[in-house]
Design goal:
- Two copies of one chain form a homodimer.
- By secondary structure, chain A is α/β, with parallel strands linked by helices.
- The first copy, chain A, folds into two domains: 253 residues, Rossmann fold; 115 residues, Rossmann fold.
- Chain A is 41% helix and 16% strand.
- In chain A, the strands form four sheets. A seven-stranded mixed β-sheet of chain A has the order 1-4-5-15-10-11-14, sandwiched between helices.
- In chain A, α2 packs across α11, α3 runs antiparallel to α5 and α15 packs across α16.
- The longest helix of chain A is centred in the middle third of the chain and has 20 residues.
- At the A-B interface, α6, α8, α15 and α17 of A face α6, α8, α15 and α17 of B.
- Chains A, B: Its cofactor is pyridoxal 5'-phosphate.
- Chains A, B: It holds the Pfam family PALP.
- Chains A, B: The beta subunit is responsible for the synthesis of L-tryptophan from indole and L-serine.
């Protein structure tokens, strides 16, 4: 029984799967933050080059992947799909567990899948520089690498507390030639405004987004780049699920359950959307998004219009949200700490095509440890939520006397998260209950639309 | 033109290549540290299980790899071989550069290739626990992982200064269930002796070896495990070169030059020995070992009998050595800071079958940065010596108007070495001249044999 299912380089997908035309109803329009009217392509032109804007609104089911992007992806794609024999033995399940592994990419997660596409389209449009924000640095390092490949300068506004606490991701960005600033900076009005109020501000993703957006709109040669949430980002990630489908065919299986962890939504979309197409065509398959109980956007949020950022500068999107003022507790899965969700993923969940589960972080670390000792890969804290969901599903099937085929996406490695493992092993990690009061306070600030 | 050459799982080599029977002359005997007489297998029995001792002295050219070991290797093997198109473009060479990438393993280097084999044979022999030493933690984490796979407890004596400065490797070992002590400890006579003299000793690899050996010989259920230098370790690493030969055939090429970085010798042996077999059969190929100028064992050392450790507890081996008292400067390529060398690699160099070059660390970091920006893989400081050698060879060929096929082994990733990249980028890294005085002083302490 093989452990790995590999595809040759010429089987990198030739198109991205766009779920929009297959959805039961058209997506709710994105609204302008000032007028609450649907945004037009030209409203987005200061931020993104036209091919990206077209992809954001495309009705084309299969969007061809440019050969230059496929060549860039070929550095690490097709990524491997593993049968988790050793994990199955360790938990004594009758189910068969498979995982797609995105940690083989340059920055160690699924993020470069969209970073190289975005860098390509921007370079083609004559853009010289990309501005973006990053929390712990996973997205910033992915875009830094992609910028290198296509000759674009990259400026990263990194949340100050991470800039200081996670120097290694910062180093990785600089190794790949990016300019990295601790946000808030004194380089933008947004940053200066924050610093005037609090010179020692530790920053936040919301502030960093504001700085990056301001940088992009105030420089002719510069555009903005985002690593999750938006439709085109989810589109670019579908290479993950398309490859996984081919690899499951190699294994002679079709999954009963497909699992991805969920923060902004691009990782879950990547593995799940191609299977959602099958499901909409009548295939039996459950699609499960796994999120932290401390930031339970899909399981506890409301499906309504909200801003993508704290500063209310982004367009309004219809999505599951905990309210744009919600500040999640400081769990180690930094990539899952987002108040909102991809509108497309939200629509899948709202329509019952996908389901969501939430787990506390210590259970996820326990699952990660079990997985790592069996499979030899140290997972990112974000990815550990998908492992936990897979183990829960396998045990449930065992209890029911059933045998399931479970597929999950291992979105990245945890080589930069060993401090968190240390804390877990020392018994120092705490769980956070559902932060009901904070969510209710934040919900009160939801915009009144329509 | 493909970027990657992949082999399916069933093409993991079925045997290890043992170079001993093909060498122009038999290896010099290993001598007992007390009597200076050739050691017998039973002398080694307190340290190693019999199958390992047999492999250490085997005259069998092709040693079958047990299926259990192949199944363990299948977690990451066959490792990919890449054509470095982007690097070639960046340096503007006419030569074609290929690299084998061992960073895809659980611990991120070639070390698990031998760790899983050693753990398997020990488990089969009824051993319950393995004791070993580690410097920066690369070897310790590899053995921790291998111990998990085969149900062996693993105790690691980690040089105290690394234990304190490199907490992430320590965490990785604990994540994989190993017991890790900062050496010197008060658990062994060797450790207590050191602490009695200097309670604040920062430790050294020599001391940690002494502690691990003492632990093994003083516990019935425990054996010792070493990650480089010895014949059986080099043997286990030949899967690297055997796979690379198959992958170069896929690429339709045969290398003019094969390069590996060199510390204790197991990485160089892994990539080079199978090509050395071809060379001894008449094939034109240059085999180049790349080491740091600050620890120039092969380029400046003498080929003579010496101890493997500072404390003179190990058998004497005929090898290139800078003297067992030599303490190399604190370069970031910790895995290349060893006073000696594999006796088999030494014999290849002494006989002219392989050659050695030495480079200062800043040139290697510059090469690593160039490589990383082109290829998207962040190399370990050790591996950067092989990159530097490959670039030097490509530029030399260009200057001579020739076109070469260059293959090097990228032995590991640098995810735990970003502090070193930070220092390089900040211009804070220094080079060390050849430490002539320290070497001459150390050479004076070489044992007088025969």
């Amino acid at each position: 029984m093989p452990l790995k299912y590999l595809l040759p380089e010429d089987q990198i997908p030739r198109y991205w799967y766009n779920i929009i035309p297959d959805l039961p109803s058209p997506p709710a329009p994105v609204l302008h933050p000032a007028t609450f009217q649907p945004v037009k392509p030209e409203d987005l032109a200061p931020l993104f080059p036209m091919p990206i804007i077209e992809q954001e609104m495309s009705a084309q089911r299969e969007v061809p992947i440019p050969e230059e992007v496929r060549a860039a992806l070929a550095r690490w794609r097709p990524s491997p799909l593993f049968r988790a024999h050793a994990l199955e033995q360790k938990i004594g399940t009758r189910s068969r567990i498979y995982y797609k592994y995105e940690g083989v990419s340059p920055s160690g997660s699924h993020k470069p899948n969209t970073a190289v596409a975005q860098a390509f389209y921007n370079a083609q449009a004559g853009v010289r520089r990309l501005a973006t924000e990053t929390g712990a640095g996973q997205w910033g390092s992915s875009l830094a690498f992609a910028g290198q490949l296509f000759g674009l300068a990259v400026t990263v506004y990194m949340v100050k507390v991470s800039y200081e606490q996670k120097p290694y991701r910062r180093s990785m960005m600089r190794t790949w030639g990016a300019e990295v600033f601790a946000s808030p900076t004194d380089l933008t009005n947004a940053g200066r405004g924050i610093l005037a109020k609090d010179a020692r501000s530790a920053g936040s993703l919301g502030i960093a987004i504001s700085e990056a957006v301001e940088d992009a709109v105030s420089h002719e040669d510069t555009k903005y780049s985002l690593g999750s949430v938006l439709n085109h980002v989810c589109l670019h990630q579908t290479v993950v699920g398309l490859e996984a489908q081919a690899q499951m065919r190699l294994a002679g299986e079709y999954p009963d359950i497909v699992i991805g962890c969920h923060g902004g939504g691009s990782n879950f979309a990547g593995i799940a959307f191609p299977f959602a197409r099958d499901k909409m065509n009548g295939q039996q398959v459950r699609l499960v998004a796994a999120e932290p109980t401390s930031c339970p956007t899909l399981t506890r949020g409301v499906y309504t219009y909200d801003f993508g950022d704290t500063a209310k500068m982004t367009p309004l999107m219809k999505m599951y949200t905990l309210g744009h003022d919600f500040m999640p507790p400081g769990i180690h899965a930094g990539g899952l700490r987002y108040h909102g969700a991809s509108p497309l993923v939200s629509q899948l969940v709202a329509s019952g095509l996908a389901e969501a589960v939430a787990y506390p972080q210590t259970a996820c670390f326990e699952a990660a440890l079990l997985f790592s000792r069996a499979e030899g890969i140290l997972p990112a804290p974000e990815s550990s939520h998908a492992i936990q969901a897979a183990i829960v599903e396998a045990r449930r099937a065992d209890a029911e006397g059933r045998e399931r085929v479970i597929l999950f996406n291992l979105s990245g490695h945890g080589h930069f998260d060993l401090g968190a493992y240390d804390q877990y092993l020392a018994g120092q990690l705490q769980d956070f209950d559902y932060p009901r009061e904070a969510v209710e306070a934040s919900m009160a600030g939801l915009p009144k639309v329509g």
